[in-house]
Design brief:
The protein starts with 18 loop residues before the first helix and ends in a 16-residue tail after the last helix. It is built from 23 helices and 15 strands. It has 650 residues and is of the alpha/beta class. The protein is globular, with a radius of gyration of 26 Å. It has a six-stranded mixed β-sheet with strand order 11-8-12-15-14-13, sandwiched between helices.
Length: 650
Amino acid sequence: MTSPVIGTPWKKLNAPVSEEALEGVDKYWRVANYLSIGQIYLRSNPLMKEPFTREDVKHRLVGHWGTTPGLNFLIGHINRFIADHGQNTVFIMGPGHGGPAGTSQSYLDGTYTETYPNITKDEAGLQKFFRQFSYPGGIPSHFAPETPGSIHEGGELGYALSHAYGAIMDNPSLFVPCIVGDGEAETGPLATGWQSNKLVNPRTDGIVLPILHLNGYKIANPTILSRISDEELHEFFHGMGYEPYEFVAGFDDEDHMSIHRRFAELFESVWDEICDIKAAANTDNMHRPFYPMIIFRTPKGWTCPKYIDGKKTEGSWRAHQVPLASARDTEAHFEVLKNWLESYKPEELFDANGAVKDDVLAFMPKGELRIGANPNANGGVIRKDLVLPALEDYEVKEVKEFGHGWGQLEATRRLGVYTRDIIKNNMHDFRIFGPDETASNRLQASYEVTNKQWDAGYISDEVDEHMHVSGQVVEQLSEHQMEGFLEAYLLTGRHGIWSSYESFVHVIDSMLNQHAKWLEATVRPDPSGDEADRLHEPAGLLARVASGSQRFLAPGPGCHLRPAEQVLPQRSRHRHLLRDRREHAAGHRREVLQVHQQDQRHHRRQAAGRHLADPGRGSRPACRRHTWAWARARQGGRRLGLGFHREDQR
């Protein structure tokens, strides 16, 4: 398998969490909160040395505080957990607008400075770290691809669970704590994401721990899940196949160390249950367990001022973005900001040079176990090249003998045979994803070597064909799920494709755009530092995916495998194969076979060179000269419906 096994997976602690570790977590929480506020508010004087004035506050305040302190609390405990257990872990932050928590974490574990040496571990580096946040020439305000350890930006909400479960497929040592925002939980993709636990196998895959971050509010309204009764909330998740454990803190005067002790105890209990699930799966993977999850109920904007200008802030929607929007403009708000920052006691966290003190970081994991350094979160480091079968074995030999237009062939059926052999050569490193359309799209040859992975119950072989608790084909009637699974599967170092009809693929065209921009950012970071342009652009499908994408409109069964052979090993761009599935050269219904891979290498077979249009220069049909010539001859000069050319099929 490609996926590396690091640390000591699935090991119980069998001892109480030490007080020293919990003190480290509390210091982490304080310093991460300080760093997060600094990123939102400060442009200079990051340690508030005298004179600390309104001139040190940014002119334009952008960011989201409300979810960030809860994220910092959870990340601190996840770091403690990784260090104590040596567990191979990738972290998914569904509320990606809490980006300050993600960048603070990688700054504290050292991977940010390792990736960006100009962000030094001193006062000068800290000032650059603060100033660049959501700033021209800086970084986005979300958990962006520029942040070490991130495989999920969280700008367009809804895909956290899809990405978490895609990451653990064929990755049996990987643990993914996935924080789901309670606003995000109201989106359609996230709502169906809870069903992902029926499409994985705890023996051959890793484990996801969903953590619902229930802080009660969105931008201007309460969240639905925060207002329903505890009984209804728990019954809902139990019906989704989870065993919910609720944790409540921050609504009274409980000491923070007491809160840390309670959460660590709960986390260890949940972890013991997960280890038991893993152990049981080694002897019985036919019975789906109820997977544990955590409901984490804390105040919105936890630890910020409780009231600002006489209005409730902590524990309300007013804490969602920037609670002190006039901190530069008014002395009163500036004083509130100063007192807020001082409440974390930065003098106990930073040394005289502005570096975070060693005792603050002593509890954290080291080496590849760090969240920002885990190779699973940087799939390009561990990805192996696909072992592709010889394309000559799939030649339509009759065309050479009888000429173009011979016979009735389906291009996607030929692709199905080709992908069958790719799976055979790359078992556990290649998957097919599709919304209930693998056979419909003529890719069913894969069932000769694998099955559809399914853990939601069986009736009989009479109706449940090609279904098994493990397999390299995944189907659910959700384009969002399939796209999310594929994205995470690729970003953690594997290969795959998913297929859908062009008329349906628009359901996720904005999602395609997000991923294309993610890939683009990994090779050409966004100089604007403002995530809005990158996250919220509407367009049609091929216009939308044009950013960092290639489109192949191959017209015939023979040509169709040429671009397939090229794009499957490639990386760093979207690739789209567009083709009719019917038994003629071109028809009224095109299939979109989307192929994502991450790398910039571009290999062309000499034989394909004269046939394929340059995919980077538009969307002309491949093999155009040869195809149009014989198509016109057979159809009396009437052009067929290839590529973007639409034809009435009545």
